[in-house]
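Figure S7 source data.
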Amino acid sequence: MSAAPTGRCPGAYLTNSSPKGAGLNRMCTRWLRLRRVGLAVDDGVVSFRMGIDLGGTKIEGVVLGASDEVVVRRRVPTDAVRGYDHIVATVAELAEALRDDAPGCSRVGVGTPGAVSVRSGFIKNSNTQCLNGRDLATDLRRAIGCDLVLENDANCFALAEVRLGAARDHEVVFGVILGTGVGGGLVLSGHAHAGRQRIAGEWGHHRIDPDGPDCYCGQRGCVEAYLSGPAFERSYEALAGETLPASAIVERARENDSHAREALDTYLDRFGWALANVINILDPDAVVLGGGMSNIDELYSSGRDRVERYIFSDELVTPILRNQLGDSAGVLGAALLGVGN
Ligand SMILES: [Zn+2]
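Tokens for the predicted zinc ion complex:
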């Protein structure tokens, strides 16, 4: 809740003659402007949260105000080919650029592909492969200069859709990412659930065909090898002998092109198998879909029918929801990690 714009600037107790005087002057000026626009103040501390989404192609940062409104948002390229140190430095620069808009924020939420190994504390399972085997949390903490929380990006997506988007008011939510890769995240009672190995919700790498195509994770027949956008495009190419983007294949299927219809029908059927497996085990209150492939309307009609066909139940009452936050969900979820999760 936004409180009345009263109280003291967090830096006001220090004098302008201190070495940090100039920065504090800037902080106070900024704080006074925030007071004027009515942003929240709680006992002299403005309740801002900073989130950073470390994606494979872009790094996005956001500052949320006390009512979860976006105060500022910035996006820079990841440039992952320049390596791990470059990524850490870029995240730190982005956090520094956002700091003026987040006075009082002492904890940053960071969403990243992969997960932190329980045993080593290093990143594992990331498709931004230069992160794997590195102590990202410690390195970012040192570079940014404040406390931070690191969480899987699909968990951040699911958390944002539960707190701010399509899955509000649901207790147990499974969030699905269908994009260049396939991921998933689990939110229980409004909190991201990482799991004992920090792999909760990683449905992209559960196998639906042990004789299926190779996956980069070392297994065969993973969901990602069937339900990612590139996998869908490859399946059409194998049938039709030509390469098209996923959206064009879907359009052709709607125009009754036989190869495109077959590719889309197979895709929806595999979606049904894969999601039925999750629902059989977890039986969530809602499923919310994100990622570029989640824009395929047929997932919510024919795809849903396939889920119903394959679950161990005579009915499917679980809502399968279209996301509301688009590609902002990841960074918003990262900011929500900072406080209250
Ligand atoms: Zn895999």
